[in-house]
Amino acid sequence: MGYLALDCTGETYSCGLLTENGRFNEIRGLNPRRALLEMPAHIAHLMNLADLDYRALKGVGVPLGPGSFTGVRLGLTLAKTIAFSSGCGLCAPDTLECLADGYRERFSGLAGSLAVALDARRGELYCGVFSTRRGEVVLPTGVRSPEQFLQSLAQREDVLALVGAGFAAYPELVPAGFTGPVARGRAETALCMFALASRCREAAEAGTLQAPDSV
Fold first, then answer.
1. Adjacent-strand bridge partners of 115
2. Cα(41)–Cα(48) distance, rounded to whole angstroms?
3. Residue 95 contacts residue 166 (beta carbons within 8 Å)
4. How far is CA 182 from CA 35, 52, 80, 103, 116, in A?
5. How many structural domains is the chain composed of?
6. How many Cβ atoms are within 10 Å of 147's Cβ, its own excluded?
7. What domain range is 51 assigned to?
8. For 29-59, b where at least 16 C-beta lie within 10 A, e where not — what string?
9. Any idea what the CATH number is for the domain that residue 32 is in?
10. pLDDT of amino acid 34
């Protein structure tokens, strides 16, 4: 059995496969404009590495957005097509929550929050603040101006990391004297495929995967 994860929402596209025995492989950091042409072949390669047939997939994880409109729709279309043909369900979490997942392990055991921001263009951000404990949202994902988000960050003293390309587009969002990691480069802000595949596995085991036609 396997759990597939894929993402086309950011500046790169990635895919990963987690097997029932814990083996994980991924292909990441690729040009999102070529995702439609290249992603199916990369996924097939991961399936071959794991010696799995598509019918062995138990779930497909894909971020629901926000992000590039074209990228979000492309990722969902690919994920739904694979899920339909494999007879499995979808796990479609919030993109910013997935970005936070990539840094939660680094701060496991610490109480605090992770601020995530993506450039929504036209002077706005997709942004939110998430607890280091998965599932706990401090500031829900939303569209805000940089000034609004800066005010929200100024009210918090427990932010451990700043994650996302929004902090590259608006460097003034980084508080003066902030000493935690600021992840704003392409490689640093690629979604963690292992975390997304793990979410998918947990949803499958809990029976909370969604039907492809309901997403």
1. 129, 162
2. 10
3. no
4. 27, 38, 33, 11, 10
5. 2
6. 11
7. 2-94+191-214
8. ebebeebeebbeebbeebbeebebebeebbb
9. 3.30.420.40
10. 78
Neighbours of 3 (CB within 10 A): 28
Type of residue found at 158: D
Using one digit for the tens of pLDDT, what is the confidence trace for 2-49?
Answer: 999 999 887 788 999 999 999 999 998 677 777 778 899 999 999 999
- DSSP readout, 61-89? E----SS-HHHHHHHHHHHHHHHHHHT-E
Do 9 and 47 sit in the same domain of this protein? Answer: yes
CB 95 within 8 A of CB 64: yes
Order of strands across the sheet that contains 2-7: 24-30, 13-19, 2-7, 57-61, 89-91
Two structure tokens written together for 209: 């995967």
If you count DSSP H runs as helices and E runs as strands, how many of each does the chain have, helices first? 6, 10
At residue 104's C-alpha, the angle toward residues 99 and 107, to 5°, is: 140
Tokens of 43: 């996924």
- Answer whether 0.85 is exceeded by the pTM: yes
Residues 6 or more apart whose CB falls under 8 angstroms from that of 179 comprise none
